[in-house]
Design goal:
Helices cover 36% and strands 17% of the residues. With 281 residues, it is an alpha/beta fold. An eight-stranded mixed beta sheet has the order 1-2-4-3-5-6-7-8, with helices on both faces. Helix 1 (71-85) packs across helix 2 and helix 3 (132-139) packs antiparallel against helix 4.
Length: 281
Amino acid sequence: MPTFSAYDGTELAYHEKGQGEPLICLPGGPMRASAYLGELGGLTAYRKLILLDLRGTGDSAVPGDRASYRCDRIVDDVEALREHLGLDQFDLLAHSAAGNVATLYAARHPKRIRALALITAASQAVGLTVTIKDRLAAVEAHKAEPWYPAAVAALEEIERGGSPANAGEALAPLPYGRWDETARAHQAASATEKNADAAAAFYEDGAFDPPATRAALAELAAPVLVLAGEHDGSPNPAHAAELAGFFPGGVRQVQPGAGHFPWLDDPEWFVRRVAGFLAQD
């Protein structure tokens, strides 16, 4: 397992899978170990995945300063990884909450990005937020499922001010296009893969300056794929379209029938689209 030293001396780990040109991959969660990305549905047949374990997750060390978990500070870890790998330019893929890290990296280092793939990406970095109404609208696609009534009741309770912590079991199926054995196993692993303390610090005050980020993204010449799941509510396809609009070379693609982890719902579709996009850079 290769490691490198971050800007503050924290030892960070990454995992290499597959063959071909390197593709740096940032996991979401926020602050979930990269193991949940697996082989991204078989993308390893086309690219060598460089799966970064963010600080304090997976095989990476816990930093001395808890404040370094904040999203904007993790950007410096990505730059340290680029330098460690000796890449002048590189392709970057980010999932979910890590979409914010990748967006901030692109704004700060636009000339380093060759191509950027944002997979069901969060977008607070540019000022977009997901609401409970967005998630309620998305769950309608699953109204025939036995878990649907409990999920809706839990979302409505959160909308009234209830704690999301009390609704974990009811909401567990929501991120998946289908709630099958693969999805259940994937969801069950999240409890051991996520650093809760780091996640709490990820979005702390000061992490984002949306006007400045939006302005900086105008300098990004690289092509950007913003891939959304048709049935994902966090973010939904409309949010993905808005996010794509902030990049000069941005394009949105919606994966039919997919949720928040599209490589699980239809690996072949996902890999074909992402590999095809990266092959164009």
